[in-house]
Design brief:
The protein has 94 residues and is α+β, with helices and mostly antiparallel strands. The protein has three helices and four strands. Helix content is 27%, strand content 32%. InterPro entries: Dimeric_a/b-barrel, Tscrpt_reg_AsnC/Lrp_C.
């Protein structure tokens, strides 16, 4: 599975509607509105790089209100929850 983080510039007057429309696209797992240099951040998970090519410019980029995107492909995932789970394997004595 390929995970990409998509930074999205959106029209200020349509951020909630734009975010919901993006969230409704298959392959988009989460959309966050945020402060800073971008208006929205979407987490995308697809099976192939071709899937990214189809999803980001052809679907996300064409949602009304989207002014532009910047995509970052994730190589590896790190999380404290994953680390805690790994260290607790077999800790219950089973």
């Amino acid at each position: 599975m390929i995970t990409a983080i998509v930074m999205i510039h959106a029209r200020a007057d349509s951020i909630p509607e734009t975010a919901q429309a993006i969230a409704d696209i298959e392959g988009v797992s989460e959309v966050y509105s945020c402060a800073g240099d971008v208006d929205l951040v979407a987490i995308v998970r697809v099976g192939t790089h071709e899937g990214l090519a189809d999803l980001i410019p052809a679907k996300i980029g064409k949602v009304p209100g989207v002014r532009g995107t910047d995509t970052h492909i994730a190589f590896r995932s790190y999380s404290s929850a994953d680390t805690e789970a790994a260290f607790s394997i077999g800790a219950d004595g089973d």
